[in-house]
Design a protein that fits this description.
With about 100 residues, this protein is an all-beta fold. Helices cover about 0% and strands about 35% of the residues.
Length: about 100
């Protein structure tokens, strides 16, 4: 059996380090495309599992920068504001309705 050199076109997976702290998996989002997107809470509270982004809230100093989103629960129609970057945490939110 020959020991071939690694192919530079194929990246090698990083070595697992058991001492490394687990990192929350983050997803990349374009804040301009969040309006009317659908989200599922990983740990639903008050029977609120499915949400729709109903409003984007811009920075008062720079209207081009989105800072928060308004999520509306489908079941109860209750709304809540949260920083849009919180939606990137896959431990809290799943994109789409699952």
């Amino acid at each position: 059996m020959r020991n071939n050199p690694p192919d530079p076109a194929r990246p090698t997976p990083p070595a697992s380090d058991a001492s490394a702290a687990p990192r929350a998996s983050l997803r990349r989002l374009n804040p301009a495309k969040l309006l009317l997107s659908k989200w599922t809470a990983v740990a639903p509270q008050h029977k609120e599992k499915h949400f729709i982004v109903t409003r984007l809230i811009a920075d008062p100093d720079d209207e081009a920068v989105i800072v928060e989103v308004e999520l509306e629960a489908v079941h109860s129609r209750r709304s809540r504001l949260l920083p849009w970057r919180e939606l990137t945490n896959a431990e809290v939110w799943k994109q789409g309705w699952c």
